[in-house]
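Example 388.
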Amino acid sequence: MSELIMIKYGELTTKKANRKIFINTLTQNVEKALKGENVQITKDSVRMFIKCQNAKSIASKLQKIFGIHSIVIAYKVNNTINDVLNKALQIMDKNKQTFKVITKRADKNYPVHSMEYSRKLGGLILKNSNFKVDVHNPDITLTVEIRTEGTFIYTNEIKGAGGYPVGVAGKGLLMLSGGIDSPVAGYLTLKRGVNTEALYFESPPHTSLEAKNKVISLTKILNEYSGKIKLHIVPFTKIQEAIFKNCPDIYMITIMRRMMYRIAALYAEKIGAKILINGESIGQVASQTLDSMVCINSVTNMPVIRPVACFDKLEIIDIAKKINTYETSILPYEDCCTIFVPKHPVIKPQLNKCIEYEKNFDYQSLINEAINNIETITNFEENFDDLL
Ligand code: ATP
Ligand code: MG
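Predicted structure in complex with adenosine-5'-triphosphate:
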């Protein structure tokens, strides 16, 4: 294995106390993403090293893993300046003209200081090639890291996904619909290291199998970002029909969302999730005005994280495109929120009215029944490859 990838850890370097957990979790996530590849992974407290054959394709997989600040395809040579020079001349792109050298001396016992080393190596490159020095705006930045086990040199640094390794922040339950917002919300919480599971409310026959498959596909895409998301599917038909039958039109959506929150909070407790996550965005629709949020949120004390609460729709769409969920989200299958939609949903619902209307039916036993009949999908690879 002749190529070497060097991973610089992300924000975790600042979290000294938890460093070990962070690095171990990141290692597990990297191992999982590279399962089946012929690689050899080693790590220390500041870097992870991956020996491999096909560094470019490995690097592109690593770009989706949270907790990585940057990825470099590096070359290890002996600590003699001649070995470093020869490798540098080999890897510097001959189509470019100017360069600068940055030296980092991780081995503080190395006898030459960084600045002096850069000057010396830069001088040797000048003498042995046609490159010119430009310290302000170079075409090539040649980085040299002198470490006890050898010197690593590289010319390009690929930006990593940032954030924390998924799994370091405890568990959260994502309310995942087939829309644009909730997959983005899921991505953003995964990025904070939250070990996420997802909950989808379906109302067959009012919602179709295609709508469910869309959510399965979205979960699969999110799982590329070092997720291990299980998808729990709640049968929601009876509850929606009971709301339709027993509550005034304009309160249907508010009460439906109160039921969703109740189920989500109960189920979160059952699976050990500490928070709920959803794709609500302030003011986007009638059920997301501040008054609506107060009424809906009042059914639970569990913290509800709304990562896109303050984003414009266009900002959310930009992220959805970047993370590859957008094309799936815009497929035209109905969601349970889009059926039974009243013409004029209440914008300023009142809590006492919600409570009064909910007395019209025995929602608690319907909720229990729905929770008891949740279907969980854990294996996305084998069964759901050709869904869409
Ligand atoms: P859109 O991008 O069309 O706004 P959305 O997924 O944000 O889609 P909303 O009606 O705005 O849909 O719902 C707000 C939030 O409520 C969603 O982001 C999601 O977290 C949750 N939600 C809505 N419908 C469902 C559902 N069927 N299953 C699970 N969660 C849902
Ligand atoms: Mg929305």
